Amino acid sequence: MRARITPGGSIGGVARVPGDKSIAHRWLILAATADGTSRVVGLPPSLDVRSTASCLAEVTTAARPALEAWSRNAPDDAEGHRSTWNVEGSGSVEMPLEVEGEGRRALVEPGRPLDCGNSGTAMRLLVGTLAASPFRCELIGDESLSTRPMERVAEPLRAMGASVRTTDGHAPVEVRGGHLLGIAHRPPVASAQVKGAVLLAGAAAEGTTTVAEPAPTRDHTERALAALGADIRTADGRVSVEGGFQPGAFAGTVPGDVSSAAFLVAAAALTGSELTLVDVGLNPTRLGFLEVIARMGVRTEIHVDHEELGEPVGELRVAASSGLAGTTVAADELPLVIDEVPVLALLATVARGETWFVDAAELRVKESDRLAGVADGVRSLGGHAGVEGSDLVVAGHRLAGGRADARGDHRLAMAFAVAALAADAPCEVVGIEAADVSFPGFVPLLRSLGASVEVLG
Question: Domain map of the chain by residue range?
């Protein structure tokens, strides 16, 4: 599907965004392995989260009916006809799911491969979860996921005692779990997914498991485990979990996804508008992009009003801005803005001077080669961008208009659509339906906030 975006207008008001999929993956896994019935509200009906739910249904018994029903019925229409993300704070984003867990010990061998779809988070976290289960399972994914590196999670789990076999370093991944021993692991690449997988395995292991991060990453796994009572210790870039932990049942509402919010923040900044996002997750490890755009000249405010399972939640406000300037995102800053690089790069097209994303090689192994995808997309829309070694460089130069290919990547699709709002002429985004992977209802919400977007066949 193609989206045609006509520039102009003001993207402002009050809105919600879908629940945070990074958090949702983890809470679903914890609910399915908990001892008791958990109630999770506000799960995002994105394709990635549905993949996790359907995989968990294959390895549970009591929780299977609820997980299967939710994964089948969650709305994901590209036009958002069944989406509930709303404007002016009205409507409801609640899609409660009650998961009857029987503890980690009750997980069962699946009768078929676990299909993780396009979700690297689902695959890596599930491998870590299943590493302690005494049966064999195979995890598969779509063409894109099958190119992403999986040895980085397989290697530490082997060191703990699991049998994990990849296919030339990629999916399909075969796991034969069993008795695990805690380890101390330092990943060569900063990765919240790898850290999360090792900590989930470590919670079921004998002894202490420690992950020493080469750079800070999002901390949703350790926050959730700590909130459920696990012995979690953090200090000097290290996080440790004491093994033998069995989570109990819990209740929580998934905060709005701040990475999804970043696209609406950029839309407001590009159109000089004021915007308020409510019920959004304000975890400090996810707010690095606010520091970047502050250097560029975008003014924002955050207000935390409560917590959900250790996650701060509140409002994110964007003030009207103009006269943006380029900046540099250093290598040690990149892991904390890795998901926002595409939209930050497109925001840079209206900034004075150049914006550099230094040592961004990790972008090559996302849902697509985002390093090349961003640069090609900017140029195809009439802007100036290039790749120098592993650095992404974007020069401030208004987009002239044109057509950009999202390459099946949800973040590229949304970044190109948002950038088109400040172009000199209409733009088309090919593959806009990819937004459903993380942000179902993105197009209608953008429209309701003031954008002129037409979805073509």
Answer: 2-17+255-456, 21-252
| Whether the predicted model's global pTM rises above the 0.85 cut | yes
CATH number belonging to domain 21-252: 3.65.10.10
Which of 236, 232, 212, 213 lies closest to 222 in space, CA to CA? 232
* β strands within 103-231, DSSP E: 114-115, 136-140, 163-167, 170-176, 184-185, 208-212
* One-letter identity of residue 381: L
Say if domain 2-17+255-456 classifies as CATH 3.65.10.10: yes
**Spatial distance between the Cα atoms of 431 and 404, rounded to a whole number of angstroms:** 9
**Secondary element (H or E) of residue 303:** strand 300-308
Catalytic residue among 20, 48, 115, 339: 339
Q: Is 231 a catalytic residue?
A: no
Q: Do domains 2-17+255-456 and 21-252 have the same CATH topology?
A: yes
Q: Would you write out the chain's pLDDT as a tens digit for each of its 457 residues?
A: 999 999 988 898 999 999 999 999 999 999 999 999 999 999 998 889 999 999 999 999 999 999 999 998 865 433 333 344 444 433 334 568 999 999 999 999 999 999 999 999 999 999 999 999 999 999 999 998 999 999 999 999 999 999 999 999 999 999 999 999 999 999 999 999 999 999 999 999 999 999 999 999 999 999 999 999 999 999 999 999 999 999 999 999 999 999 999 999 999 999 999 999 999 999 999 999 999 999 999 999 999 999 999 999 999 999 988 889 999 999 999 988 999 999 999 999 999 999 999 999 988 877 789 999 999 999 999 999 999 999 999 999 999 999 999 999 999 999 999 999 999 999 999 999 999 888 988 999 999 999 999 998 7
- As a whole number of angstroms, the distance between CA 129 and CA 133 comes to 8
Amino acid symbol at 428: E
